[in-house]
Design brief:
The protein has about 230 residues and is an alpha/beta fold. The protein is about 25% helix and about 25% strand. It has five helices and nine strands, in the order βαβαββαββααβββ. Strand 8 and strand 9 form a beta hairpin. Helix 1 packs across helix 4. The chain is elongated. The chain starts with a strand and ends with a strand.
Length: about 230
């Protein structure tokens, strides 16, 4: 049976997942990264599945009746629901978590859970996001080839965490080598703004490619004049 599937994402790892299924399956696969086109796309295309892989916006509740709309969250829900789950977990000292696939509901990150898979939080963010794609591919394969999905309600609730801002990339907020190392690597991806320090002489230092040693951190530093 050929399925009609929509992939929604505003990050490259979500597009990578879409490209895998377009290239390696016979299913009809579409990709969307535009908020303004979501309503018409879901209402008019009669998709069997809509996979929301990395998205910063709430899916309008009136669209939920048109398809199975499944969200992906890079934490072991209900833990670390809300914004910036990868960064918030790294700040808390976690180096492993789970990716959760859940049925999107009217409440943000609160829908019934479908599947979870292990996800390593080690290394720079670019590596973690590549793993997100690999794990999401495994989850989606399991979902679309199951005869019947089993849903498990999230039986306890947590206060959603706030999405981090660029100000949270300021290394002056973090104390000790381990925390500074984590603060650098948790945003070290081409799609994110780098960790930084602004000096009194208005020079801005941006840090990437961090390597942690016993008593030091080696990394690349870009120095610019603060605007």
């Amino acid at each position: 049976m050929t399925l009609k599937i929509l992939f929604i994402s505003n990050k490259e790892w979500g597009r990578k997942t879409f490209r895998f299924f377009r290239a390696h399956t016979k299913h009809h696969c579409d990709f969307l990264n535009s908020k303004s086109k979501i309503i018409n796309k879901i209402k008019n295309q009669n998709y069997d599945y809509v996979f929301v892989l990395h998205w910063s916006y709430k899916i309008p509740s009136h669209l939920l009746k048109y398809s199975k709309i499944i969200g992906f969250h890079s934490s072991d829900l209900p833990n670390f629901s809300g914004g910036s789950p990868i960064q918030n977990q790294i700040i808390k000292g976690l180096n492993k978590t789970k990716m959760t696939a859940f049925l999107i509901s009217e409440e943000f990150d609160k829908g019934p859970i479908i599947l979870k898979r292990h996800l390593s939080l080690k290394g720079p963010l670019s590596d973690i996001l590549n793993r997100c794609s690999d794990v999401s591919i495994d989850i989606i394969k399991n979902i679309i080839y199951k005869k019947k999905l089993i849903y498990r309600s999230q039986n306890y609730r947590r206060t959603p965490l706030k999405r981090l801002s660029y100000q949270d990339n300021n290394l002056k907020l973090y104390k000790g080598l381990n925390k500074v190392y984590d603060a650098i690597r948790m945003v070290d991806s081409e799609e994110y703004k780098k960790a930084y320090v602004i000096l009194e002489n208005k020079l801005k230092l941006e840090f990437s490619k961090a390597k942690k040693k016993t008593k030091s951190i080696l990394c690349e530093v870009k120095i610019t004049t603060k605007k």
